[in-house]
Amino acid sequence: MDTYTLATAGLPALGWALHGGLLWRRLATARRDPLTGLHTRAGWTARAERLIAKHPNALVLLVDLDDFKAVNDTHGHAAGDAVLTATADRLTAWCGRHGIAARLGGDEFAAVVTDPDRTAGLFALWSALDSPVTHDGHVLPVSASVGHCHRDQLPVPTLTDALSAADAAMYAAKGHGRRNTH
């Protein structure tokens, strides 16, 4: 084959390979929250479903920041972003290598931990999430309500049922006053 034939046949293939790589990168980026780096709901859900199906001891968490709107209203959106980023970092650190965390939207986060015994425990999570954040010379109060559900407590171990149970537990914690886990 001559050089011209190789070039005309190879250039389109190279172009499609580059295009495919760019599309793959865009898809991966779309599944990550640009502020926190956590998985988005879409990126997290499929992975969380697989983890729940595979790990009988899995723990599902929902986290909602308490009075987050007040931080934004009082200190500005950059301060709110600092609180969201700190929350993401704290949740990720707590999960460690045994789970994945997500930002579902706004000030709501979720996580699945495959082996809760390998974490520092729920009280340690609550304590980490309840620590203030310093931004632009201001100490910002942070608190969160945390709901959880153990997979083995569900009649049908699905992510939807686990999230519903964790959501109910989170609102029960809010009902007992801020800064609670349930």
Structural features, described:
The chain has 182 residues and is an alpha+beta fold. It has helices at residues 3-30, 41-54, 68-75, 77-95, 122-129, 159-175, and strands at residues 59-65, 99-105, 108-113, 133-135, 138-140, 144-150. A four-stranded antiparallel β-sheet has the order 2-3-1-6, with helices on both faces. A hairpin with a 2-residue loop joins β2 and β3 (108-113). α3 packs antiparallel against α4 (77-95). The radius of gyration is 21 Å and the shape is globular. The relative contact order is 0.16.
Side by side, the strands of the main sheet go 2-3-1-6
- Tell me the series of helices and strands, N- to C-terminal: HHEHHEEHEEEH
Q: Calculate Rg over CA atoms.
A: 21 Å
Q: What's the number of helices?
A: 6
User: Uncertain segments of ≥5 residues (pLDDT<50)?
Assistant: 19-29
Helices, strands, pairings?
Elements: H1 3-30, H2 41-54, E1 59-65, H3 68-75, H4 77-95, E2 99-105, E3 108-113, H5 122-129, E4 133-135, E5 138-140, E6 144-150, H6 159-175
Task: Briefly say what this structure is.
The chain has 182 residues and is α+β, with helices and mostly antiparallel strands. It has six helices and six strands; from the N terminus they run H-H-E-H-H-E-E-H-E-E-E-H. Helix 3 runs antiparallel to helix 4 and helix 4 runs antiparallel to helix 5.
